[in-house]
């Protein structure tokens, strides 16, 4: 049987070669009449070949004396193939058990088929070397359970979007109490800097800005950072021309104002700060924009699958627009506790009580809404068609403020300023209609090809063209920073600055300096993951958080702030208090746990790597210096880095083989690092399977 299996492909190939085809003997050759139509189909006769067809019917083919040639050629081929098989067998025996060598050893013509065959989960076969595996017992653990029963859920004829699991029988939903990786800090008190400081904070509106391709080290830009150093190296004596220094020193004024971070190496005449929390070590939930968006809006980790398939699967937690729609569906008393507390003792008119007002969701961007089915994703996240302002609407005759005729600046659409009238209008209409605004805005100019509007002054930041992409990228970062300043000006002009919470977060970074990449596609470098995260309000003190955080914490932080500032009515507040405890992320208003007080399990943080299916980035708050890239499919490398010793990951450890990989980590960084790597690998293995369960996805 084994011999036949080996011979089968060769027999097939030989049968297709003219020398090896069976030749008819003269005595066996007979020809029966068949229709011309059938002859055309089987033998390929075309119109005009009737004469040739007739000859084929009436003449027999003589014998071809090819047996000698056939036998010689057959033995020659068998001999060559036999030698090759022996060489392959010997190579397999003496070759080290390293996955990369196995992968490279395949004949190039077969690689597409081998790669396809290996594109399946690769984590099931892991074997621990140090006893740090969590064990197969975890395979029976899941955070899915019967939905928590809340008496405040409104009775409705049609289940509320985002809350269908609570209305449909036999549905299961994420339950934090069942999640072995869940760590809650909600029972902790507020950060010391916030205690006694929230009484004057009013949050009527929430603005959430997703910053396209924005690295943390450009928010704000800093002198003597990696980008500065690389650009300086292109100039004689490492000295920037005056125009370049001026551009870099004034590049990110708004980022400085929002973060309160003026420790950037430049001279400043003033140090104005808006106030709020600056998370300095935040990593995104995904390095693909259309996965990062639901990660932020829904407080979840996106689906481990390529591209935007989230729209077609179970978004396993209510998203912010859906939570605000829930608040709208609940009956809130006319006079809330907040309104009563604001009544002045001297009988003067009380502050406006907005806690009974309805929320209005809006998603505003100047680029297309159709790339990778984003138009199908947004309704799943809670946005109605009329809630979305995009390039398609802006350039249509239906546009409220007239058809926009600005040119495109990149593949996806126009500059951000195309949306200015609509951002103004959101707050103007909210004032007239006594509404609350939840406005989400996605920036666009800092996306490749990093082109600014024609009327903007471009300053070449590098000498020559070696870092041209970096120069253009940094210039667009400055343009977006000025646009963010314009958004803050709009809030001032509309009289809502002191009652608007502004959250700004990078959708993903870009390793344009470290690796020269202009996209995070299959890029594991930390430059693609480390993003700015600011939670800003004029009445909040300036607070820096140095602990590792993940953008999954944005939703619980927003809810926690609405609760703690009394910005919700009593009914909505009760709902928010229950909801916030059932999300995975910790609140940034409170001390962050690096590990569970109950189980000792570390605060593990995961990021889905662009485009989603192949790799997951894992780190833990307990051991923030170590970072692991886990291959979900075969023929993809394991990757380990120590960001304390190698902050830009210029020399990561790479290997296709897990066992060899652990030994390499131990050899360079010691046994503790190797044991952490093993533990992180097994935690990630469980989490990847759990991720599919939560999303109701079958790979």
UniProtKB/TrEMBL annotation:
Q: Where is the Sulfatase N-terminal domain?
A: 272-562
- Residue spans crossing the bilayer: 75-94
Q: In the UniProt record, does the keyword Transmembrane helix occur?
A: yes
Keywords on record: Membrane, Transmembrane, Transmembrane helix
The family database entries (Pfam families) matched by this protein are listed as: Sulfatase
Q: Name one GO molecular function term.
A: arylsulfatase activity
> Does Transmembrane helix show up as a keyword for this record?
yes
Q: Which family does it belong to?
A: Belongs to the sulfatase family.
UniProt protein name: Sulfatase N-terminal domain-containing protein
| Biological source species | Claviceps purpurea (strain 20.1)
């Amino acid at each position: 049987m084994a011999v036949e299996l080996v011979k089968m492909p060769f027999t097939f190939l030989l049968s297709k070669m003219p020398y090896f085809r069976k030749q008819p003997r003269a005595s066996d050759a007979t020809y029966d009449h068949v229709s011309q139509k059938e002859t055309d189909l089987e033998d390929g006769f075309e119109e005009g070949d009737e004469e040739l067809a007739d000859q084929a019917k009436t003449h027999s083919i003589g014998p071809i004396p090819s047996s000698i040639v056939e036998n010689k050629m057959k033995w020659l081929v068998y001999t060559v193939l036999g030698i090759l098989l022996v060489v392959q067998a010997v190579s397999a025996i003496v070759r080290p058990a390293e996955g990369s060598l196995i992968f490279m050893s395949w004949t190039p013509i077969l690689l597409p088929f081998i790669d396809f065959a290996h594109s399946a989960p690769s984590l099931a076969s892991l074997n621990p070397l140090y006893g740090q595996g969590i064990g197969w017992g975890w395979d029976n653990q899941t955070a899915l359970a019967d939905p928590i029963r809340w008496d405040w859920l409104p009775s409705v004829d049609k289940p509320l979007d985002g809350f269908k699991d609570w209305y449909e029988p036999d549905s299961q939903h994420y339950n934090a109490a069942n999640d072995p990786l869940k760590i809650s800090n909600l029972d902790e008190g507020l950060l010391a800097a916030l205690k006694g400081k929230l009484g004057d904070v009013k949050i009527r509106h929430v603005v959430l800005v997703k910053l396209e391709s924005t690295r943390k080290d450009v928010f704000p830009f800093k002198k003597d950072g990696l980008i500065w150093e690389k650009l300086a190296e292109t100039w004689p004596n490492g000295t920037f021309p005056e125009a370049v220094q001026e551009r870099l020193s004034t590049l990110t004024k708004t980022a400085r104002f929002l973060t309160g971070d003026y420790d950037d190496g430049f001279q400043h005449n003033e140090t104005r700060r808006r106030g709020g929390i600056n998370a300095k070590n935040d990593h995104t939930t995904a390095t693909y924009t259309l996965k990062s968006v639901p990660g932020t809006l829904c407080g979840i980790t996106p689906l481990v699958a390529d591209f935007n398939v989230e729209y077609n699967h179970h978004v396993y937690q209510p998203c912010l627009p859906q939570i605000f729609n829930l608040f709208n569906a609940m009956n809130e008393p006319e006079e809330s506790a907040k309104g009563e507390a604001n009544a002045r003792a001297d009988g003067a008119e009380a502050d406006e009580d907005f806690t009974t007002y309805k929320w209005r969701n809006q998603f505003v961007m100047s680029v297309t809404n159709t790339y990778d089915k984003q138009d199908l994703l947004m309704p799943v996240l809670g946005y109605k068609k009329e809630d979305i302002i995009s390039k398609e609407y802006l350039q249509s005759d239906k546009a409220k403020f007239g058809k926009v005729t600005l040119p495109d600046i990149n593949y996806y659409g126009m500059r951000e300023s195309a949306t200015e009238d609509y951002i103004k209008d959101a707050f103007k209409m909210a004032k007239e209609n006594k509404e609350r605004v939840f406005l989400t805005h996605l920036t666009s100019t800092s996306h490749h090809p990093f082109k600014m509007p024609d009327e903007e002054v471009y300053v070449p930041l590098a000498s020559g063209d070696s870092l041209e992409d970096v120069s253009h990228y940094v210039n667009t970062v400055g343009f977006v920073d000025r646009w963010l300043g314009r958004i803050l000006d709009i809030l001032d002009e509309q009289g809502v600055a002191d009652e608007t919470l502004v959250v700004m977060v990078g959708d993903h970074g870009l390793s344009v300096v470290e690796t020269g990449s202009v996209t995070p596609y299959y890029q594991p470098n930390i430059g693609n993951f480390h993003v700015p995260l600011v939670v800003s309000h004029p009445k909040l003190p300036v607070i820096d958080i140095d602990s590792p955080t993940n953008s999954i914490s944005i939703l619980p932080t927003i809810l926690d702030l609405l609760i703690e500032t009394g910005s919700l009515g009593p009914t909505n507040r009760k709902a928010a208090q229950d909801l916030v405890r059932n999300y995975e992320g910790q609140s940034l208003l409170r001390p962050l746990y690096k590990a569970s007080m109950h189980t000792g399990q570390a605060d593990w943080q995961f990021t889905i790597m662009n485009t989603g299916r192949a790799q997951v980035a894992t780190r833990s708050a307990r051991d923030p210096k170590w970072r692991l890239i886990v291959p979900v499919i075969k023929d993809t490398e394991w990757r380990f880095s120590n960001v304390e010793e190698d902050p830009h990951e210029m020399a990561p450890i790479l290997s296709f083989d897990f066992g060899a990989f652990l030994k390499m980590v131990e050899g360079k960084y010691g046994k503790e690092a190797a044991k952490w790597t093993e533990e992180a690998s097994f935690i990630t293995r469980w989490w990847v399977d759990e991720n599919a369960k939560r999303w109701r996805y079958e790979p």
